[in-house]
# Entry
Amino acid sequence: MTEKIDLREIEKKAWKTYMSKDGLFDIFMGIMLLTLVIQAYFYNIWFTSFIFVGVLVVTLGKIFITKPRIGLVEFGNKRIKRLLMMMIALLFVFLMMLLLFYVSSSENISIEFADRIAFPAFIATIFVIVAFYLDYTRLGIYGMLFAFTEVLRGLYDRPVRNIAVLALGILALTVGIYVLLTFIKTYPLPDKEGIIV
# Structure
């Protein structure tokens, strides 16, 4: 008896493999966070360009590492609709945050509240929404931890926050490299005849 094929589950697995199982976005997060720390200490606009190194890593990694191993992946209308819903949710949260900062400029809500509570909550919400719609759990964890570093900034000022961001950046980079090496080992390159080497 032929087993029933769950196309939705297959599509979800393919999406997760393409998005998160190669560790490239984890590496990008690590580079971005480490860039924030470097920028905080040296205040040089040129250090911000390190973020583009992260973008380059993801772009070239997808082209030369991920795609040759799992092939070209195309997703259907449901995935596109899900991404559209993500954009709508992000826009809604962004507008709510703008409204909150506008209200906080009045005497009713202090700037301290917006800085110590509302802004970290905004960061966490953004990351959680993206992680949910992209099926990328680790991204949500990074987001919540990064939001916590902003809470530390409000409580203990920048030095403590910068140390926390540094630790988080190293963590994300380490996880990304480990996941990438595991991906390369799990999905070896096929040879020209399509045989796994």
The chain has seven helices and no strands. The chain has one domain: 8-185.
